[in-house]
Amino acid sequence: MMKKNKSNYPPERRISLSELIDIKKWQKIQDVFAEITGIGLRTIDLKGANLTSPSGIPKLCSEILSKPHPRRSICEKCLPTFLGGEATVDRNLSFTCPPGFRNFVVPLNLADGKTLGYVILGPVILVALKPKEQYLKIAEDLNIDPQTFYDAVLEVRVLSFYRLQTIVELVKDVGAYILNLAYNDMTMKEEIETTLSSKEQSRLPELLDKFLNVAIQISGADIGSIMMMDTQSNELTILASRGLPEQVIRNARVRYGEGISGIAVKENTSFLIDETNADERIKTYLNRPQIKSSMVLPIKIYDMVMGVMNLGALVSSPVRFNQDNLKSMNDLINLATLALRTTTKNNN
Questions:
Q1: Beta strand 254-255 with 271-274: parallel, antiparallel or unpaired?
Q2: What letter would DSSP give residue 64?
């Protein structure tokens, strides 16, 4: 049972983000997220002050545009006006920095709608690069060596708006999940016997669905699922899926230690599977010829394997998974488990 700490905060006093969660743990989540997505992130308070060190910030921002220069002083406050900067946000809560790159503001909200802080995600390039000449002109206006500037621009992540919104929604949902779990514990609104309160447990499929969506976006998989262990029946069931028939989702039951997913959970082992590379332990279970390449990865929370992520590329797909894909997906799972494990900084 988790150790309780009664809140001394009067109802009218606003709880700050740093009081509610352990910023060091949040920094770790932010670092992993930036590594997986290749996008810079930083967490700020309601006045625009940094709560974390920036994660994954590209060379363009960390080295080139950060150098003091009168004509680049606006870059020192790459924030919206309501956070002390000079940029204007649009209806998608995004803003454009002086060189023309997009940044997105992700509110960190409690269930009652109160905002405790923000994650700034970016810079990114939406859809496609502009013609090289436009970037060279920006470099000249900023008195920066044009080729140095352009080389740095090429390191900035290029994403479709849909894919970017998927990532933004995941950041928002992970933040809400952690904050509300921490707030419930701090205020003792519920008697919490496990890491997940009953309210947040009900949101678990929604959160897993967001993670699976990002996993498919990043890996290029055609189909996928996240299965979690039912400790009473000792079976894995599907809580999130993409591209699977409804009947499969509803009826899938995999016993601990049986089938590829069951073995992955029992042995805490990831499998990278294609026609040329199949572990002897699972060969007898390879009976889906429509799948050309697949990954099966255990989901470990604390010291216990609680589930598995399955990703597959169909025969018609140009995607073939490799060890780099396996590492990226393991990193994403680590992010998910960090989110599930992060509670208040006072918990044992």
A1: unpaired
A2: I
